[in-house]
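Thanks for the sequence, V.! I ran Histone deacetylase 11 right away. Repeating your input here for the record:
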Amino acid sequence: MCFRLNGAASADQSSMSSGTDEEDKEDEATGGKLTAELPISRDRIPIVYRPEYGVRFLGLQKLHPFDAAKGGNIYRLLKTNGLIQTDGDVYAPNEITLEELLAVHTQRYIDSLKWSLNVAKIAEIPPLLFVPNCFVQRSYLRPMRYQTGGSLLAARAALESGLGWAINLGGGFHHCSADRGGGFCPYADITLAVKMLLSSGKGIERILIVDLDAHQGNGYERDLMEDRRVFILDMYNYRIYPRDQHAKLAIRRAVELKPHTDDEEYLRKLKHCLSQSIAEFEPNFIIYNAGTDILKGDPLGLLDITPEGVVERDEFVFRSALERSIPLVMLLSGGYLRSSARVIANSIVNLRDKALLPTVQ
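Predicted structure:
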């Protein structure tokens, strides 16, 4: 069952350097300041992606079960299915800048990413500690900065396009807080999106975070502990990482799952608790962290949800938002099976076929 829990610019740019002369010039050109906002249009499909999302460092990424090419694989499948016709149909985000990151992150944390040892711990790839940091920046942190920028752009698209939804084919770094990364999550894109939306001046006053990744979203929970404008529904396997009891105090509705929970139990609890949370909090924006590490066979999630269960899950969340005219942004978060990309693509196509993605034919 679900239950309520009550609780509560003089920066050194070297940590944002990509390690090449050409890319360093780009960093100098922005000066660490806010990037120009990309225009939002009703005529574009509010899917956010660019090839730079892919993490590559001489095969070392294969030492972590995360599919570093997941976003690109989903994008190709969506093109094959005809949902995306050309690259110009979707949004390509800018890399988030240092100044934008400092809206949430501490300078001390950003500086810590200059050390490959610290990044190796966050990425959970021990051999990274022997890799020069300039290469770590270019091959791991820079793609993550693009994905973080993608989460902010997708949130804007969901809010400003008039379509009421957007999907970032990346992001969902829910283990990262303002001063600590972990679990392959180096930047706090969810906290950043919350702060951006609440300060947007567009009437967003109550944000519901629906975190359906198999792991507890302890990063943004620590950041948003005292913010009553945010309601957190977190549904996770309570016997796996991170088991963060302090962060748990921020969860307004927890759905703790046992290992090997199946479709029937999972969907029953989700439908009850999400409906309950929306009725109680009456949000005017939803951030949906749609991890697919819930799939049966995932080496880290340890749940037993089928691909059909994931499709039904996503459909219920989108329908719940659309029927109430609540803008929703979907972030991909975790998913450690190579089959995750096809499951996600099939789910997005199903959303289109069920008329849950307005304007997408």
